[in-house]
Specification:
The protein has one domain: Nucleoside Triphosphate Pyrophosphohydrolase (Alpha-Beta Complex). The chain contains two helices and nine strands, in the order ββββαβββαββ. The model has no long low-confidence stretch (mean pLDDT 93). It is mainly β. Strands 1, 2, 3, 4, 5, 6, 7, 8 and 9 form a nine-stranded mixed β-sheet that branches. 13% of the residues lie in helices and 40% in strands.
Length: 166
């Protein structure tokens, strides 16, 4: 089948694929506290991740992002959720959320921010990116082999995040 048969048309809704990764080590989760100079989410805690590049599949993109942003390797990385993010434009986001373990080594911080191992019991006390208090507990409650979670994020007329779980 030629690429022209894929049905890609500029007037259709399209998404940018991204990966969001949470690593665990015992009772701790590795979170990135965004650098104060970041344009998006400065000083807020989030997982690590980024865009999927043209020449890679989503799993390998997640592995690459972990290596680039933390310097760590991860074990048992698995897909936990797929979130469609409606930005209100013709171009949205398809976020693929992964969970994995990092059993050794210390993370290295970067221009993105500071990496911190946070006890799972204290995560909700942090200044988190707005969807993380809803997403992360669900992901951490999952067991390997569970079906992925499905969600849709959009914004209301006040530009407030609206989350729908399926």
């Amino acid at each position: 089948m030629p690429s022209s048969d894929q049905g890609v048309f500029k007037d259709r809704y399209a998404v940018i694929p991204r990966a969001l990764i949470f690593l665990t080590r015992g009772d701790k989760v590795l979170l990135l506290k965004g650098a104060p100079t970041k344009r998006v989410w400065p000083n807020k805690y989030n997982g690590v991740g980024g865009h999927i590049e043209r020449d890679e599949d989503i799993l390998n993109a997640a592995r690459r992002e972990v290596q680039e942003e933390t310097g760590l390797t991860c074990e048992n990385l698995w897909l936990c959720a797929v979130v469609n993010i409606d930005t209100g434009q013709d171009l949205g986001i398809s976020m693929h959320v992964f969970l994995g373990e990092s059993l050794e080594g210390e993370p290295r911080s970067s221009d993105e921010g500071t990496l911190e191992w946070i006890n799972k019991d204290t995560i909700q006390e942090l200044d988190l990116v707005e969807d993380i208090p809803h997403l992360l507990p669900r992901v951490l409650a999952m067991q390997s082999g569970d079906a992925p979670l499905w969600a849709h994020y959009s914004y209301d007329k006040n530009d407030e995040l609206v989350i729908r779980w399926n």
